[in-house]
Amino acid sequence: MWPVLRLLRRGLSTAAPRGLVYEKHGEPAQVLRLKNLAIASPANYEVRVKMLAAPINPSDLNMVQGTYALLPHLPSVGGNEGVGVVAEVGHHVSSVRPGDWVIPVDAALGTWRTEGVFSEEALVRVPSDISIVGAATLSVNPCTAYRLLSDYETLRPGDSVIQNASNSSVGQAVIQLAASLGITTINVVRDRPNLQSLVERLQDLGADHVITEEQLRKPEMKDLFKNCPRPRLALNCVGGKSTTEMLRHLDYGGTMVTYGGMAKQPVTIPVSALIFKNVKLCGFWVTQWKKDRYQNREEITKMIRDLCDLIRRGKLLPPPCTEWPLEDFSQALRDAQTPFLSRKQILIM
């Protein structure tokens, strides 16, 4: 563990900029190398940022592997998310100034580095009175959860939502955001040796019901809906049988949104769900959502402002994390790919 605040007390490093660079696609542990980076002074509309922290997300690993929908030109620095402090601004930069904290708006920025120069429009300012880990993990998973709960069904207090992969970072954010809105969550997880510990942790975040995929398939599920309305919204990050089983419990006219496919299995939809239950099926990718609003930032800035307000009020906690100095990236990558670990790996710069 490497406490973030200790780094801040020491001041920002003056060492040569470094980053985790990959020159070809492959397994991250095999193709990523810690290298010195050449950093120029920011030009017009550019910002030099000293990174503070950056998480390792599944999408980051997929990008290095070459299996993600968005792939940068190679060689490239890994990482899509993180938080940094503005060190210098070029001419005509108006939205940030030195000392501000910033996070990426777009993907493929290359955040696994100590320092970088980015375009002003690729960054958005966040308040520095929230935790560094909270800021570093803000731009992907909480934003995904926010949009999933906002954009597909008009949910009111007392309504319910069902989701799988509930212990994922998005799932934990959904639980907390829904709780702040008075929305009931039905949370599906895979069975595991430490199941009771996981159930208690999700309940501490505000989960109303936590069930396993096996329980989801049992006839006893109907008893749950004696005191809980059938969900109008289902959030799918798994695919395969888990998706089909969630559909069985969706209310008439409800919506299922798929935002991931952890099982790497197709989404199979019974014909009866479409004809007799009139369910709607949608897909969501937060990267595309942001790209569609790249020139008009009002929705993005409002979302970030709302999420930061929830963080300040203790209504939105970051996922459990393990912090690693950048030099220990190999172990951080191994832990990020370890099943059932349920901790976000954070690189500290």
UniProtKB/TrEMBL annotation:
It is found in: Mitochondrion. It is an enzyme of class 1 (oxidoreductase). Pfam families: ADH_N (PF08240), ADH_zinc_N (PF00107). One of its GO terms (cellular component) is mitochondrion. GO terms for molecular function: enoyl-[acyl-carrier-protein] reductase (NADPH) activity. GO terms for biological process: fatty acid biosynthetic process. Its main location: mitochondrion. Belongs to the zinc-containing alcohol dehydrogenase family. Quinone oxidoreductase subfamily. This is Enoyl-[acyl-carrier-protein] reductase, mitochondrial.
